[in-house]
């Protein structure tokens, strides 16, 4: 599973240079160069102003969808409002420092085959790979103390023995013994086999029936009866096992929240079990792209181009055009119309997609459902560039700070995540320097910022106040050798940064849909030929989920035969 603690996807975009012009990355042959080649910006989309499929937004979900469509030999055009591709997952450079703006803690990039994560399978289909550094730990700072947490089947025992109750190790073993047998079922049906029509009976149900049956047989009677729990909240499994240790309950809540933006009572058991299978098995490792998380986006764009796809930057979609009841294209901010011969796919959030549509063409039930969907909160961010002198040599890449368990991991100003990727990838910073990204993970209330003028003294004062918790966390993690006044780069991002640059309604991280109380919407819409992918659709929030959603939409727009041939080609 490709994962990123601190919300796998949905972290803010920090575009410090913008353009209203369009900048298209052209169609190219299979022997394309290994780096993205960008033509100078132009005021209109060059070439033909049409495509089989037009994709709105170049987030991971949109790029996965577009790349696979190009692989399927469809003429696809991605329209991105910003002047850099990647949406929330892009990277940016200032004064020689290369910053991540999105996910930073990954695993599973090198996995292949049936149980590989969806993003790895998409990259495999596009003939792309991502060189990574491997590691197995992160620093944890909690009210009980601080420790180096290692992944693996038994490494966590020593932490439980020190910080939890005497029964904690036995409870943790009990949890692993109960859920790891379920992981085979959770991983037996690859998301890339799913499509949004009856063809799924061939590409998923029939194709993987033997492996599903084998998984259920291998689970034994108890595991087979427990399989329905995969679609229930993970807290129900913990309750059924009578797990009482507060440290374990808090730790699992933290993992769930970092994974999907909800605690254990709101996350699907299948998602947590998948994560446990990846992180608590023998020989497991974490991975970080050697060229930064932006390399994920570069690889997806290379794959898109390799198969003839196009991406137009600085192309802000103002409206989705509906003619005779069908989505037929989009209108750009400058007035240009781009025709979509087969479909329009929106990688925007459900609320922002709604705002692109003519209201008189939509059923009120659809409008009401979107408007009534609860939202996750937004973010505060801190990007720093500073001298490494005086810092300890064993500084790790990741640090998690929890100030109070009693307030809950979803409380504002309570949890701070810190990434120092230059520890593993020195090329992300000038020689002898470090690059750092700290953030509060989807817990910052938008209401505090709503209506503020970004140029006002009130806004600047609130930025200083609300960023202080991150500064204190950074100082705790880096120690006395760090001096905030000596940072060469200091950038603070707020929910208004999200709203403005990510085009995210109220700066939200995404839908706050609780397992057992609701489900993420599918990918079709009431408007024929209009589809959606990304964190507002099934399977939900996070890098694996949005990659899978993009793949599902792409699969749905081609024949069952083409879909099956792709599954054969990547060995699943």
Automatic annotation (TrEMBL):
Example of a GO biological process term: carotenoid metabolic process
MF GO annotations: oxidoreductase activity
Superkingdom in the source lineage: Eukaryota
Domain Amine oxidase, chain residue ranges per copy: 60-555
UniProt-recorded name of the protein: Amine oxidase domain-containing protein
